[in-house]
Amino acid sequence: xxxxxxxxxxxxxxxxxxxxxxxxxxxxxxxxxxxxxxxxxxxxxxxxxxxxxxxxxxxxxxxxxxxxxxxxxxxxxxxxxxxxxxxxxxxxxxxxxxxxxxxxxxxxxxxxxxxxxxxxxxxxxxxxxxxxxxxxxxxxxxxxxxxxxxxxxxxxxxxxxx
Length: 162
Fold this sequence. Notes:
Blueprint: E1 8-15, E2 18-27, E3 30-43, E4 48-56, E5 63-75, E6 79-91, H1 94-98, H2 102-123, H3 127-132, H4 140-156
Antiparallel strand pairs: 1-2, 2-3, 3-4, 4-5, 5-6
């Protein structure tokens, strides 16, 4: 699933639901490369799970923590609804961007890209099509521009198309 999130890469499966990975992001002049671990605890019987993660940007000194719960629910006969509740904590220099809403809006854009890529992967007709479904490469300027456009739409009340 790491290939569904822009800038994310799986570095190592350490076994027992523990993974080491990296998430790289650039927001305007600020770039970060968080390396860390995530522990995934699925409950197949209840179709739920919990994820705990933490990472550090060694170059910039920022830190991140994640607590995430998910639930899968059948919708009709052919669809599944995935509900995700996440609590993300940022500290260090990157937290300054969080005060302006830039990090929040950029995170929303990344999550939308993750969802779109995952939907393409899961609805692919062949294994080759599924393997080719990867997240778009969103650079810092693209994230800033998309954040700005969404802000303008919110301020002026224009509904989002599509």
